[in-house]
Amino acid sequence: MGKLEFRCGSGHIRFLPESLDFPNMSSTYRDLKVWQRSIDLAENIYCLTAVFPDAELYGLTSQMRRAAVSIASNIAEGWGRHSRKDYSRYLEIAGGSNDELRTQLVIAERLGFGNAKLLAEATTLADEIGRMLGGLHKFLQTPRKK
Predict the structure, then answer these.
(1) Which domains can be identified in the chain, with CATH numbers?
(2) Which of 81, 92, 135, 137 could form a Cys-Cys staple with 86, CB 3.0–4.6 A?
(3) Alpha helices of 1-146 — where are they, by DSSP H?
């Protein structure tokens, strides 16, 4: 697999896998807005679930935290696979975790768990992340121009 040379502002040389070849993108998943927003969401979920009933520690609290962490983790892991096909698959998994979390947010709201403001923020973030994941997935499905 070929590599494309990329110079950072600091002068350090990094390499982008040629198979990904994202225009105008950084050489790290940490610069992706969708990854950054998913980290924000995970932080929100940890704060939100901190006040859930103790009886939910191994139930809804654990499930929501794992789903939130899974979103960012799969974005990062897919990036590290260095192929559009693999990355696309990991974005699908991240999207599934996001959908799982959105369902759990509805359940938490219906049960009256957590702070209403944090619930609303988490729902808005999850919706935004879902759209971003869909757009990035669609981009990866588009054949590269030579």
Answers:
(1) 29-141 (1.20.1440.60)
(2) 81
(3) 33-49, 60-80, 84-111, 116-141
